[in-house]
Amino acid sequence: MITFRDRGARGRLKGSTLDAFYSFSFGDYRDPKNMGFRALRVLNEDFVIPGAGFSEHGHADMEIVTIVLDGAIAHRDDLGNEALIRAGDVQRMSAGTGIRHSEMNPSLDERAHALQLWIVPAEAGAAPSYEQKHFPMTAGRNAWLLVASPEGRDGSLTLRQDARLELARLDEGMDLSHDLSSERGYWVQVIGGIIGLNGTELREGDGAALTGETALTIEAETQAEVLLIDLP
């Protein structure tokens, strides 16, 4: 079964400093029919104006993954980590027993664009930790690129959950397939471009939940970028 999440049906927060789209309930946006998908609790698309962002705040018992698409995000936390997350970088923050951090757009003139995912960990109460890696735009060209996994396989970030994140950057006219397990759930998020997902057209911002499926086929109708989230 494939359940589609239209880009225009997402929740939205449009303010003077932030334009955000929510695939699932988040903050003041409440949608009882979209509270998450399996272990995936949050999937937000954020556009942050220069000099703005999220001041210091706290999290606990959540795997938080940030994928910067354009611009940069300056991260600071109470573990002592200070980092600049640029386009092509992926950050994993395991909140564990508790972490406080801030995320700001340090640019004076460039808007930052990022996806942020929250994944419920397999076990609560672990020590908080931080990890960040760069995945060049040439990687994952017309192929699946593993960026996060439970075991940190193939140079990916390490998640405290039996979940995997893969990116694909497709040239126009290219096809890409992926074997699926009917026992697991998969979320596909279109980051950019227009694709066919098992024959159904999706555009930038669209998403789809797949359950009980054994195969996925992506057809790039334009140059496109896709995120695949494999969940228990």
UniProtKB/TrEMBL annotation:
- SUPFAM superfamilies, from UniProt? RmlC-like cupins (SSF51182)
Gene3D superfamilies given in the database record: Jelly Rolls
Domain Quercetin 2,3-dioxygenase C-terminal cupin residue range list: 146-231
User: Residue limits of the Pirin N-terminal domain?
Assistant: 10-119
What top-level branch of life does the organism fall under?
Answer: Bacteria
Q: Which Pfam families match?
A: Pirin (PF02678), Pirin_C_2 (PF17954)
Instruction: Name the protein family.
Output: Belongs to the pirin family.
Protein name, UniProt field: Pirin family protein
Q: Which organism is it from?
A: Novosphingobium anseongense
